[in-house]
Amino acid sequence: MTPTILSRLTNVRKNGAGWTARCTAHDDGRNSLSISIGDDGRTLVHCHAGCDTEAVVKGCGLTMAALASPNGNGHTTTIKPRIVATYDYRDEQGTLLYQAVRLLPKDFRQRKPDGSGGWTWKLGDVRRVLYRLPELIAADHGEWVLICEGEKDADRLAAVGWVTTTNCAGAGKWRDEYNQHLAGRRVAILPDNDKPGRDHAAQVAASLQGIAAEVKVVELPGLTGKGDVTDWLDGGGTQDQLDQLILAAEPWTPAAERSFFDQVETAKKQVRSKAPPAPPAPWVKFPIESFPEPIRSYVTATAEITGTDPAFAGTAVLPCLAGAVGISRALRLRDRWIEPSVLWCGIVGPSGSGKSPALDQATYHVKKRQAAAFELYGQERKEHDQAVESFRLAFEDWKKSGRKKNDPQPEEPIEPICRRLYVADVTTEALGPILAENGRGVLLCRDELSAWFNSHGEYKKGHGSDVEKWLSIHGCRDLLSDRKTGDNRTVYVRRAAVSIVGGVQPGTLRRVLDPASFESGLAARWLFCCPPRRQRQWTEARIDQRLDQAVEDVFGYLYGLEPEIRDGHLDPVIVDLTPDGKREFVGWYNQHGARLTDADGAEAALLSKCEAAAARLALVIHLCRQVTGDAGDAVDGDSIRSGITLAEWFAAEGLRLYAMFSETDDGRQQRELIELITRRGGTVTPRDLMRSSRKYSTADQAEAVLQDLVSAGLGSFDVSQPSQGPGRPVCRFTLADAVDVDTNSGNTAETAIVSASALSTGPEMKVADEWEEVVL
Fold first, then answer.
1. Is residue 398 left, alpha or beta, with left meaning phi > 0 and alpha meaning psi from -120 to 50?
2. pTM (2 decimals)?
3. Is 664 in contact with 607 (CB distance < 8 Å)?
4. Dist. CA 122–CA 681, nearest whole Å
5. Phi-psi bin for 77: left (phi > 0), alpha (psi -120 to 50), beta?
6. Burial of 723 (0-12, 13-18, 19+ CB in 10 A)
7. Each residue of 706-722: pLDDT tens digit?
8. Residue 679 to residue 717: CA distance in whole angstroms
9. Cα–Cα distance between 500 and 443 in angstroms, integer?
């Protein structure tokens, strides 16, 4: 019979005493079907992906009865289960209590010794224990204990050096008595990639709360179907990568946070059930008033010149300012809660939305200073080369005669260091040496941020990820990199500080923000903005020379802030809160805490980082205010309020983005329609809509989509007679609560540029009588 079934399979290959082939019951990308002949002559078929044997056989055009017949005559016989694996469950002393038995056709049962050298399949009241219990007890208590969903997975993990265990009978069978052996241990649970697996992980994590020292649920990236940790390892996963995933995962809490992946799956289910997810919140105007002068006017003028919303330039300039401060200053909120000047900001928009021009203007002053630093370094390099040649000649003379006269040995010239203000390198391997030589920190600027998100495993060759290092950098903590090449194999940076700015398209951001980014907290550390597109119009607006110089002075002041030197290391000068600054922050912190208590999932992760963001933004705002003499040494209430306003705006904008990522096609089209109407001032006629978008080819079609908005309570129709003579009534749609946004080219050139009287004159800022316009 076996030749018959083999003739109906594809990619058949000999494998030991049997064969492998592509399974007929699922879309098999590689051989997952095993075929062999049993001792009694019957054909044994098994799909390692878990397909039902009868489905496989039917896919071959055969019947189970025919397959079970040794002679192929179609006579039905019973397929006798065959044991293919056994797993011993032993007590603390190593005494065998029972076995888990894997059978073919696929089945799992348990048996125990019957006391007479045989087995009984009735466990009765035998004590249940964890798998590999003796090894678990003997392991170092400081090591992570990995809990998976099957003995095969546990043995696979143990083979590569992990302390691992599982429970008998699979998902949903965890017993409270197992917890005693995990008291005080650090536990990482690796669920199978399906709902039972995730539910089982949550059950185990909840059971271990208050017993284990730390509990994490680690979802493995890249799993398909009902994949498990063995599949992940077979797919190229390594021990180092698993190390990084465990370290990056947030501790599990009773209010189990749903990953972004789960939210997307929920949205898909709502679509299938015709219950659409909640639409994204409407766009809220960027709080440009929170910026101090002259930064506020510079951002407004940049928006005018580039034809973009001020959110683009405002978001992009913040990490530039934070990078200029570097580690020179840090804000102390209470005894050991100190926030550094590190901000990661991304501007999100489709191609052609003006991201790059806005980014260029925001980073102009940083790049201008970097160009000057490169030029200075070139001069110093030439001087150094000349000094090296002089040293070489002097050293030769010293060896010939000076040594005998006890003349001092010539000193070798010190290698000049290029001052780096910004970089484009996205890996910590490349950044390490630069940060080691530039202790104040740098700005990482990328026109396309996807390169940064995709680089976290680059150059690792399967040996871990950069995610954990980037989390440390965001906290301005130490960075330690071990390199395989170069003169310095180990690079250590004390207080590594890298602010990041860049642009990204919405679809790209949706792809790179994978579940691991949310679960590690990486996504929540980003401040994103995604304003609606503006209608571009030609403008002759320019950056006024006086305004440009005022912004240059701000960057000069920030770059001039010096950190303290303690024991040969750079440390930030600690900035405290004024009494009113403390009152403002504490009052908001308590209100925010109440809101955070009611949040879950990606919202909870984002809001949990809002407190640190508010403090960091307030610090940057306050230091900018110092340039014009508008602020003292300590961070006051005005700066705290500005930081809070910006942080809350970015949190709301982040949640709006998450909702956009989960929206249905209909929801996205409705949102884009609302944005189009908003750009036209919040009101349109069907004919206006036809002229604005090729999607609506007829007046009836345009009127129908507007009527859908009316039915959804998002606007209303106003019908009026033509102003001149008889004719068809004019039907005009108006959005409800239309967004207050300048829909054409932004503010006028006169209001976009601050007047001379609006700028305070600090000791290092000379105010000209008139503005002079120059093009950047």
1. alpha
2. 0.57
3. no
4. 76
5. beta
6. exposed
7. 888 888 788 888 876 55
8. 18
9. 6
